[in-house]
């Protein structure tokens, strides 16, 4: 389940983009997801146990994703 506002739109708290622009990590209060533009897909990285504001960041090479949770 994704976090939605009253109109049904996804409420995204923060976004990280790889240096090459091909991957996008985005967090809601309930989960962290990654979208891959080249593969035209997205997937759930993790469901968050408690409501928080995830702050994802990609490494300089775009191969690693760090996650800082603001509770």
Structure description:
This protein is mainly beta. It is built from no helices and 6 strands. It has strands at 14-17, 23-27, 31-36, 41-47, 53-58, 65-70. A 4-stranded antiparallel sheet has the order 1-2-3-4, with no helix packed on it. Strands 5-6 form a two-stranded antiparallel ribbon. A hairpin with a 4-residue loop joins strand 3 (31-36) and strand 4 (41-47). 13% of the residues are buried.
Short description:
The chain is mainly beta and 71 residues long. Helix content is 0%, strand content 48%. It contains no helices and six strands.
Q: Report the sheet with the most strands, covering strand number, pairing sense and barrel closure.
A: 4 strands, antiparallel
Structural class: mainly beta
Shape: globular
> Helices and strands, in N-to-C order?
EEEEEE
């Amino acid at each position: 389940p994704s976090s939605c506002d009253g109109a049904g739109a996804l409420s995204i708290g923060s976004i990280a983009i790889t240096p090459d622009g091909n991957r996008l990590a985005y967090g809601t209060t309930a989960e962290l997801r990654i979208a891959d533009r080249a593969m035209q897909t997205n997937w759930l990285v993790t469901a968050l146990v408690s409501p928080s504001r995830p702050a994802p960041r990609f490494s300089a090479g775009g191969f690693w994703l760090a996650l800082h949770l603001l509770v």
